[in-house]
Amino acid sequence: MHRSLLVAAVATGMMITGCVADPPSRQTAKVSAAERFAGYAGVVNETGNFLAVAVLDGKARAFVCDEQDEAWFEGSVAKEGGMVTLLAAKDRKPAGFFNSLQGEGTFWIEGRLRTFKAAPVDKTAGLYRAQSANGQLVAGWVLLPNGDQVGVATRNGVNQPAPPIKPGQATVTIGGEQVPLKSGLQQLSSGG
Questions:
Q1: Interatomic CA distance for residues 73 and 60, integer angstroms
Q2: What element of type H or E holds 12?
Q3: What does R_g of the chain's alpha carbons equal in angstroms?
Q4: Cα separations (Å) of 1 from 23, 68, 101, 156, 177?
Q5: Any idea what DSSP says for residue 49?
Q6: How far is CA 22 from the centre of its chain?
Q7: Fewer CB within 10 Å of terminal CB in the chain, N or C?
Q8: Contact 9, 107 (CB under 8 A)
Q9: Domain count for the chain
Q10: Distance between CA 190 and CA 96 in Å, rounded?
Q11: pLDDT tens digit string along 32-74?
């Protein structure tokens, strides 16, 4: 996958199902962020690129990558119907569709429709991100439930394969620089 292909993305939205909460008077305990979190991971059929989506409290973040290129997407969940519109992180343009009930989605790249499958994952798989304090180094990973992973680190606009990570580790060292590592749940619950 080439950056020019991802930059040319035209449209990606998602369907996420949710639960209707009991009225406040009937709730007995507050639901934790981990219980409200939904994560998905899978593979783009035509390219073999890895893809992960994280959803929490009406916010969504997605990441698509191979060992050389990457693209980040952000969005929000509609209050009714669970529709999530994901926008390309750089230009905020719409970028695709995902239906969590079917586990399938599509997005457009240079006029071609690309399809992917993504299955629900627990909080240890799915989307991971690391970013330096000055923002010059950003890395992302997709971890599949079977343990396969792909990551890309971007420093000052130059991409390189990212080192392997393990769920639960708090930091990762990339090119001699140690940076904090966050899961999809941590990213969305902390706003970072």
A1: 8
A2: strand 12-15
A3: 16
A4: 47, 8, 27, 19, 27
A5: -
A6: 29
A7: C
A8: yes
A9: 1
A10: 25
A11: 998 999 899 999 888 888 999 888 888 888 888 887 888 888 8
